[in-house]
Each structure stands twice: as C-alpha cells, then as structure tokens.
C-alpha cells in the first residue's frame, strides 16, 4: 500500500515497507480448512497467516483488534465479541474515522487512536482472549509498537491476517474465515449480498478498463515534502485492480520494500496520469491542502478534474471493498485521456 511500513517507520511512510508473503500453507486453517474450528463450549483453533496455530480452551469472547480489522470482522457479523480497538478510530470532532467503517465506536474501548499509541494498561483491563490485526510486513502486526509487543503478546494470543503483496480477495477471504471461526454466519443475507455486490463490481471494473484501453491511472499519496507514487505490485487493492485490466502506472524506482516511489514535489509530474487516485486517509494531504504546490496544479489529471479518493488501507470485507471498485469503475467510464 502507499506508505505502509515496518514498525520503525513514520506514519507517513507506514504503507511503504513490504516483502513477499509466503502463503502456501499459511492460508490453510486448522480443522476443515475454513480458517479455524470452533465449537460452543469446546476448544478453538485457528492458523493465521504467520503460520501460527492459536489454540484456546474455548471460542474467544473478548476480542481486541486493529480498527480496520475490527471493522471488517464487524461487516462479516462479529459484534458483541469486539470489546476494544486501536488505530484510526475517531476524528478530532469525535466522529468515526472512515477506517472504522460501521463499527459502533462509542461502545468500544479505544486503546490507541494513532500510530504509536497502544495503552497496555487499558488493553490488560479489557481481559482480552484474542488480539486480531492486519499484517502488511511479516511478521509485524500493524500498529502494535515494536518496543512493547512482547508485553502485549504476553496478555493474549494474536491472529495476523496477511494484507500486503496479495490480491484483494485473499485478505477478504481470510478475514471471513476468521469471522466464521468466531461464530459469524457467512451465509447470512447481509454477507452473501455484500459478496455478490463485490463480484458484480469486479466485473464492472473489468469491463470499464477493457472499454478504455490506455487510460493511465496513478495511485498516490501526498505529504508536505513528498509525493508518493504507489506500486501495483505491492498494494493489495492495486494488485487486484491491475489484474482486472486497470492500466496502473508502475513506479520505476520504488523504495527498498517496493510499495512506492518517493518523489519531490518538483518531480511530481514524472508520471503522466489521466486519473489520480489520491490517498484519503486522515494523515495524508488532500487536494484542498495542495494549493501551495504549483506542480500539483500542473498535473494533467488535476487540470482535468480527474482526481478521486483512494483508501490504501481498505477494510477487508466485501461490504467495505465493493464501493471502492464501483467508484473506480465509474471514474474510468467517464474519464478522458489528457494527452
């Protein structure tokens, strides 16, 4: 993803680090191969994407999760078991952060609302049975501070879902498998309708891309000092969009971990894009913030009014991702070539 990184990177560079994920057996779960086994009152097991088998005496009843992971689990039907979250949960005005999705944030204990924040005392007080997190850079759990991870992991077992360098459907499927192991009904009308919408949106995007060959799309993120051109080789959503035929620009000189290329604002026009997908997360600069950057105004996509929002950290549920595919398809259908 744009600016996703290891625990030592700044929040700005947070989606920049990567590394190939060896899935193989990691995507297989204990029991029937659906991601985990759980029975009421019985033992509970789940094998996560680190290859770690989690064995508990009973199905977890108190789950703390990274905000995005919690939001995805909630979409799949996990509700009362969610007791706490960490990560972007509330905005400064108290409203839910977009990354919180449909989560009932006022009911949940927020043990950290920004990168580097994780209140271990609050976490311990929640008496967690399980910690759930996204894993962009194996084996690191997103937003779990490296300096205190040992204390955190000593309080409860943890589950990691691979969310970097794999196509978008994979983390959605794995999150669904975990939700099912936690007791959610993946055959519910809500979940099946969301999956059908996602599949339809995928085909709509495929058709839109096929009808507009040569329409160049750049996924990017803006900071005060740098313009990040993101790679469709590492970001899970971009990998999927490219597989559907979207002509995504591939940065020539990505960072060591391959997620993005750092460009000075003077060189922001290095790649000629007809459409720019711009990082919409709270910490990234938005078009309204970029008036002082002459090079921004000069970009062909900006001049053409073809800048759309991008969520480099999608919530990995069918409900969370279907609207993203639909919006991109709509943009591609109406966008014009700028050169």
From TrEMBL:
Gene Ontology cellular-component annotations: outer membrane-bounded periplasmic space
Predominant localisation class: other
Matches recorded under InterPro entries: ABC_transptr_periplasmic_BD, Bact_iron-sidero_bind, TAT_signal
Location in or out of the cell: Cell envelope
Domain of life of the source: Bacteria
Transmembrane segments: none
Gene Ontology biological-process entries: iron coordination entity transport
One of the Pfam families matching this protein, by short name: Peripla_BP_2
Domain (Fe/B12 periplasmic-binding): residue spans on this chain: 61-339
Protein family (similarity comment): Belongs to the bacterial solute-binding protein 8 family.
Name of the protein: ABC transporter substrate-binding protein
């Amino acid at each position: 993803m744009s600016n996703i990184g290891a625990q030592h990177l700044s929040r700005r560079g947070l989606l920049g680090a990567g590394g190939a994920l060896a899935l193989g057996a990691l995507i297989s779960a204990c029991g029937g191969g659906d991601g985990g086994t759980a029975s009421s009152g019985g033992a509970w097991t789940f094998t996560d994407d680190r290859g770690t088998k989690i064995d508990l005496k009973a199905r977890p009843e108190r789950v703390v999760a990274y905000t995005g992971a919690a939001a995805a689990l909630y979409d799949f039907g996990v509700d009362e078991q969610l007791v706490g979250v960490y990560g972007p949960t509330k905005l400064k005005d108290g409203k839910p952060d977009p990354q919180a999705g449909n989560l009932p944030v006022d009911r949940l204990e927020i043990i950290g609302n920004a990168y580097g924040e994780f209140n271990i005392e609050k976490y311990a007080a929640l008496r967690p049975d399980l910690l759930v997190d996204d894993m962009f850079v194996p084996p690191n759990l997103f937003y779990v501070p490296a300096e205190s991870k040992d204390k955190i992991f000593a309080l409860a077992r943890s589950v990691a879902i691979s969310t970097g360098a794999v196509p978008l459907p994979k983390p959605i499927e794995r999150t669904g498998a975990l939700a099912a192991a936690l007791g959610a009904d993946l055959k519910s009308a809500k979940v099946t309708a969301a999956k059908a919408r996602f599949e339809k949106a995928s085909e709509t995007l495929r058709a839109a891309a096929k009808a507009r060959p040569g329409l160049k799309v750049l996924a990017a993120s803006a900071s005060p000092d740098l313009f990040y051109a993101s790679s469709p080789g590492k970001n899970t959503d971009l990998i999927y969009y490219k597989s559907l035929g979207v002509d995504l620009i591939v940065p020539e000189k990505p960072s060591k971990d391959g997620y993005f290329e750092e460009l000075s604002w003077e060189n922001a026009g290095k790649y000629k894009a007809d459409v720019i997908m711009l990082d919409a997360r709270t910490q990234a600069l938005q078009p309204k913030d970029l008036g002082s950057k002459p090079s921004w105004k000069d970009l062909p996509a900006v001049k053409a009014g073809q800048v759309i929002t991008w969520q480099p950290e999608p919530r990995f549920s069918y409900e969370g991702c279907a609207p993203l595919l639909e919006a991109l398809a709509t943009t591609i259908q109406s966008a014009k070539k700028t050169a």
